[in-house]
Amino acid sequence: MASVRNKVNPLLIPYVLTWRRFGFRTICSSRIGFAPSTSPSFADADTPPVAGKKILETFAEEFEIGSRKITLETGKIARFANGSVVLAMDETKVLSTVASSKGDAARDFLPLTVDYQEKQFAQGVIPTTYMRREGAPKERELLCGRLIDRPIRPLFPSGFYHEVQVMASVLSSDGKQDPDVMAANASSAALMLSDIPWGGPIGVIRIGRISGQFVVNPSMDELSISDLNLVYACTRDKTLMIDVQAREISEKDLEAALRLAHPEAVKYLDPQIRLAAKAGKQKKEYKLSMVSERTFEKIENLAKEPIEAVFTDPTYGKFERGEALEKITQDVKRTLEEEGDEEGLKILPKTVDTVRKQVVRRRIISEGLRVDGRRLDEVRPLYCEAGNLPVLHGSALFSRGDTQVLCTVTLGAPGDAQHLDSLVGPSSKRFMLHYSFPPFCTNEVGKRAGLNRREVGHGTLAEKALLAVLPPEDDFPYTVRINSEVMASDGSTSMATVCGGSMALMDSGIPLREHVAGLSVGLVSEVDPSTGEIKDYRILTDILGLEDHLGDIDFKIAGTRNGITAIQLDIKPAGIPLDIVCECLDPAHKGRLQILEHMEREISAPRIQDDRYSPRLVTLKYSNDALRRLIGPVGALKRKIEEETGARISVSDGTLTIVAKNQSVMEKVQEKVDFIIGREIEIGGIYKGIVTSVKEYGAFVEFNGGQQGLLHISELSHEPVSRVSDVVSVGKQLSLMCIGQDVRGNIKLSLKATLPRPKSKTDISVDEPVAPTSPEVNVWAAIEDVSNEQEKEVANAGPETSESTVKSATPAVLIRSAVECDEEEKSAGLNSKGDNGSKSASKSDQKSRMSSSFLESSFSSRNAKSKRRKDAILDLLSDDESEQKHTSEVGLHSKIGSDKNDATTETPMTANKLKLGMKVTAKVHQIRALGLVLDLGGAIRGMYRFEPGAKRDFEVGDELRVKCSSFSTKGVPVLSLVKEE
Questions:
Q1: Regarding beta strands 431-436 and 479-488, do their DSSP bridges make them parallel or antiparallel, or are they unpaired?
Q2: Could you tell me which residue, 241 or 291, shows the higher pLDDT?
Q3: How do residues 385-433 score in pLDDT, each as one tens digit?
Q4: How would DSSP label each residue in 145-165?
Q5: Which parts of this chain are annotated as the region Disordered (predicted)?
Q6: Phi, psi at residue 657, to the nearest 5°?
Q7: Rounded to an integer, what distance in angstroms lies between the CA atom of residue 944 and that of residue 926?
Q8: Which residues of 458-496 are buried (b: 16+ CB within 10 A; e: fewer)?
Q9: 208-223: pLDDT as tens digits
Q10: What pTM, to 2 d.p., does this model score?
């Protein structure tokens, strides 16, 4: 080390020329640091140089909002930036910097770029990518950049076209606070410190709601249980940006949240002003691109009347109107070229656009007339079509005016969920909505490459709107992906995506709580030029793309009949009063109801899919040793099964989840899984096995993952068999039924139990083969204002299968695991109050072996959505009633033609006895919005529709005298009351 230190100056620069030799001062970002008071003697060459001490002058402001301490600091980090601020809340710190170009580029727009970045070092993690570096911006980073961009952009002065770049990065994160709002406030403070002209500061606040109480600056844990996530940005007296994700919050409650958010956000302003007074720079006089009055009036006189003629003709379509306006611009251009007006040619496009804006806005405010001739509160013509692509899991086409969106739904396994690498929030998500805006939707040519900020923002807005009505993950284990392809664009394609996505989810059979619809509300205002206050304004419902461009706001509001689920407000001027913003909520609600009516007329309940295309999901319980055998070395066996069948297999602790495209693929996968690791053996179950040896008294069969069973000679056929080898041979594959155990515990198998019995001479009936036990049908129907326990009770209500079916489906002997026995005991303890409890217990036993397929579970979800459709009384029936059309109701419906009109019976009711005109005594089983579900006895359910003016105050258990008046298309008895004489 001594030899290194003896070198006076390792660089090629002579020591006498260094700054510190002469004691020069170092200037850094207008803050001064001094060299040491004593310099090393030049004569003493052996003395090592001593590092100087730089003094960093820092400035900070501390304040408190929502019981959280917040600090703004500048001067320590990024001192060369035009403006830099570190904002800290708890242990989370965010750095925001701003810089501006120095040249005067010739352009007619503000090139503002906002970049937000979350690097993994902020939480002490090395990236898991191959290069161990952060790659392209993730979706969350793009969304946070948009969140910062939207409120700061309107405050730059008109005509300021210098390039500005805002960069926000997270320095440290404790996972408790979301850094997005912190980055927005830090960016505002950085702009205040810089010399860039800007009309800030702004304040950005987040509001949550837990158990009906609003929470200011909620933590991530509080947000996870909140039904509201509101991000609000404002100046001291005007609103700049609103972003909402909610679970059907009412317009009244949302307005209360906005009224609370504004004064809380204003608390951010004074600390920024004080910090700028201490450490801010003098704002520079930048050259603004302004249009001279003479040139503007000249172009206005040439273009105003032709433009008014185009806008007053409602017969123009989007492209016809655009072509006519472009022709006017070209005519003005030729006139200026003839006159040699170079200044007018440079500013022609911007000036013509300003004239268009003035013409449209003046006509809307003074006459109340819109470009396409609609009233201010009128929604464009609607067209809805669900299921237009039957091969897909779900699809829908939605058109509003000239805007058209095609939405498709794809269901996948839980392992298909998207993995997220953000610093805060969940690590994965199972519901994804991908929005695509191809160039052909506006008749343009363009390239498709990488993530687009606009597409990510619009897709996330629609995703948040639909997320509130999806069933919980515990009841709905699928991963869901919606693809929204914009086919034609003329305004509010993101809200059309919400409508189309809601219908596509219904078409795929997913039990949504409610339909979700959305539309965009616009504003046209007249401002006093002397004070800047709004003198007059008009609110526009369902704005066109042109009205969005020429108006003041684009207020996207999505929700159900019960409330709002998502909002995105973008403002073009430097703020809008909050009172006007709240006033826009009412016309948006009225327009949303109109759209919901059209959507519900097309599809109002989850659709029952075709077996050929509907996906299946099954969850099986196995030991971890068995699952290891299934996976195989390095997962080779699992991958082989997936490649051969096309299914997806997910393995977790003791659980195997299989997702297949259809039922036939599911059967193939289960067959392979059963052959490798088997399953819990039950009496009456059908298993495939291979004959391993043949004896005189029978054959030994290997089945169910290597287990051995005996196929006795007496169980080979219904006919006498003299030799076993005449029927089976070694290596033959058979489908066998487990019929029990012998005294030694050996498993007994039967081949004849799976074969149909031959006809006897004395019996003309044909016995049906015994079918294996069907899995339980999960019910995900959503009931309004009912607790989860009540929802399960209502969903499980309904008749059981016929007595014969129940007897055949209940095994005499069942070989169960200890886990299944524990679950059965719990079910028996919880459901011991009555008959309904016993039914639930028997179903719980089946559920412990295998969860039902998604398609079967979608039957019951019709009930919760059929209240508002007058022609949907059939959907009052529960899931089990829907299934009866495949069993006893087929017999009912086929005998209508031979029924007698005046039949009356008091004998126990069965499916074959009920005839048209038959009078029976029934009990009220369920009370629905439009009628009653009646218990006719003998596992038969019927329906009675309330008649106008008739009695409706029934109670469960009331006995009624009814008559069978007809049968529905599903074979369900439709009953009418018998009037007592």
A1: parallel
A2: 241
A3: 998 898 888 999 999 999 999 999 998 888 888 888 888 988 889 999 9
A4: HHHHHHHHGGGSPTT----EE
A5: 788-861, 877-905
A6: -115, 125
A7: 11
A8: bbbbbbbbbbbbbbeeebbbbbbbbbbbbbbbbbbbbbb
A9: 999 999 999 999 999 9
A10: 0.69
Say how far apart CA 267 and CA 64 lie, in whole Å: 9
Contact 216, 207 (CB under 8 A): yes
Rg (CA), the chain: 37
Q: Which residues contact 734 (CB under 8 A, 6 or more apart)?
A: 688, 689, 690, 691, 701, 711, 728, 751
Residues in CB range of 240: below 8 A, 6 or more apart? 150, 151, 154, 155, 202, 233, 234, 571, 574, 575
The closest of 206, 225, 204 to 215, measured between CA atoms, is: 206
Say what the alpha-carbon torsion angle 501, 504, 505, 510 is, to the nearest 10 degrees: 180
Which tokens is 209 given?
A: 């709601």
Count CB atoms within 10 A of the CB of residue 533. Answer: 9
Tokens 């006719």 found at: 936
Q: Would the CATH topology of 685-754 be identical to that of 912-977?
A: yes
> Nearest CA to 364 among 554, 522, 532, 519?
522
DSSP character at residue 182: H
* 121 SS3 class: helix
Diameter of the chain by CA atoms? Answer: 130
Instruction: Tell me if 694 sits within 8 A of 728, measured CB to CB.
Output: yes
Q: Which of 729, 747, 730 is nearest to 739 (CA)?
A: 747
CB 525, CB 534: distance < 8 Å: yes
Whether the pLDDT of residue 659 is over 90: the answer is no
* Cα–Cα distance, 98 to 95 (Å, whole number): 10
* CA-closest candidate to residue 931, choices 861, 870, 862, 865: 870
Q: Each residue of 334-358: pLDDT tens digit?
A: 988 888 888 888 888 888 888 999 9
CA distance 855 to 844: 19
For 481-521, how does the pLDDT look when each residue is reduced to its tens digit (9 = 90+)?
Answer: 999 999 999 989 999 999 999 999 999 989 998 999 999 99
Q: Which CATH number fits domain 59-127+136-279: 3.30.420.480, 3.90.79.10, 1.20.1250.20, 3.30.230.70?
A: 3.30.230.70
**Do you know the residue count of the chain?**
981
Tell me: pLDDT of 619 over 90.
Answer: no
Return d(Cα 352, Cα 349) in angstroms, integer. Answer: 5
Name the fold adopted by 293-367: Arc Repressor Mutant, subunit A (1.10.10)
Helix (H) / strand (E) element for 642: namely helix 636-645
Q: Across the chain, what does the average pLDDT equal? A: 79
β-bridge mates for residue 963, sequence order: 919, 976
Topology of 685-754 in CATH? OB fold (Dihydrolipoamide Acetyltransferase, E2P) (2.40.50)
